[in-house]
Amino acid sequence: MTIITKLHVNPLCQGKSQCSWARDCCQACDQLKEVNTYWRNTRYFDKHQLQAKCFHSRGRDLLTAVHCKGGLVGWETPPTAMTFLLKENIEMLRDWNATCSHVAACNWGMDFAKSWLMCANDGEVASLASWCSCSTRHPSFAGVRTSTGGFLSAETAEYPAPLATALAQIMTKRCTFSKQTLPWSHQFSRHPIPRRSVFVNDGGGIPSTADWSTNQSKDVFHDLRQRILDYGKSTGLMAQVVHHLRQQSAEEPLTLVQLNPLKQILHDWALTQGMTLDWSIAPFQKFRLSILDQLSHFLNDPDRELHHHLQHGVPTGVLDPIPPGHIWPAKPTPNTEEFPNLQSFCTNWTGAHEDPELTQSLIDEEINQG
């Protein structure tokens, strides 16, 4: 069995990242337009984009898995790459609480106009940071070919030996020493590094990370669930429910008499949590909305106002505004500056006789086009 204690990823460039993000915003926009014009509607671009997105996604998945198990993870990319404009990459680095270092190639024995931006979840990567302070310009390798016909950039693909050694020294601090064996029972003994989680709706009505490889929030229903399972096993109710589901019967799996002990278990548990449950059912309802409301407040559910609206009337936007939900992200406010000013035309379109020359030119154009 192999335990990954360090993972370093150098992501593949994504189409538009071939255009450097220049310091001059207008220049950057012009470059981006040129790239869009060149690549637009080409099969190669579509295939390249699909492959790049796949590699980026796989790289993030692997890095996240190793990071959650306490391993050292690294992400290297050119400082001017537009990969940092991708929301997914920014969120990943925030989850790491990453340290990012600009590393100049000339400080590590490589005489080229080249640098790297190295990010890691270990602050020691800051020891690699450097900037070029040379008095003369370093030669560029962009588009330059060697005597054998290959591109000179291939010779810069590997890290200089001193830089590779420095990286290895950081990595080895997460590895076992020679003549030491990590027991099989301790393969996951390293405690996961806490990370900022983005909560999503997992379909059960309770917002969670939906990522069961990390520690979740406190299981407040553990004792209640265990009592119900123990009672179901001891009385045969569990087997009865399983048999009922296999039969696909339209009848209720349990009778009201059989449900009473389960209701008592829930009621007793709620008392230990400081809640007195209201078992009444409101007219024209089929659910005990009061209990659902109490449980949602107990869980601090972001949408705990929902059950209140179900009991007292759901706003439809006619008399009262519809309140926003707290599960889905808020709709961003549109930037009105992006839209041109409205223009008002108070007269009808002019006739063809108003500009005979323009009219004749349009007719000639149509004739020439067949």
Mind explaining what this structure looks like?
The protein is an alpha+beta fold. Among the domains are: 6-135 and 155-172, no CATH class; 221-276, no CATH class; 278-317, no CATH class. Helix content is 36%, strand content 7%. It has ten helices and six strands. The strands form two sheets. It has a four-stranded mixed beta sheet. A hairpin with a 5-residue loop joins strand 5 (200-201) and strand 6 (207-208).
For this entry, give a set of tags.
about 375 residues; alpha+beta; four-stranded mixed sheet; two-stranded antiparallel ribbon; about 35% helix; flat
What is the topology?
Blueprint: E1 6-9, H1 25-39, H2 43-68, E2 72-77, H3 87-96, E3 99-104, E4 115-120, H4 161-172, E5 200-201, E6 207-208, H5 222-235, H6 237-247, H7 256-272, H8 289-298, H9 306-312, H10 356-368
Parallel strand pairs: 1-2
Antiparallel strand pairs: 2-4, 3-4, 5-6
Helix pairs in contact: 5-7, 8-9
* Beta-strand fraction estimate: 5-15%
Measured on Cα atoms, how large is the radius of gyration? 32 Å
Instruction: Give the structural class.
Output: alpha+beta
Q: How many strands in all?
A: 6
Largest sheet: 4 strands, mixed
Which quaternary structure do these chains form?
single chain
Spatial arrangement of strands, main beta sheet = 1-2-4-3
What global shape is seen? flat
* Count of alpha and pi helical runs: 10
Classify the helix fraction into a percent range: 25-40%
Poorly predicted tracts of residues? 14-41, 187-193, 199-205
Q: What is the CA–CA distance across the termini?
A: 73 Å
Q: What is the helix/strand order?
A: EHHEHEEHEEHHHHHH
What value does the average pLDDT take?
76
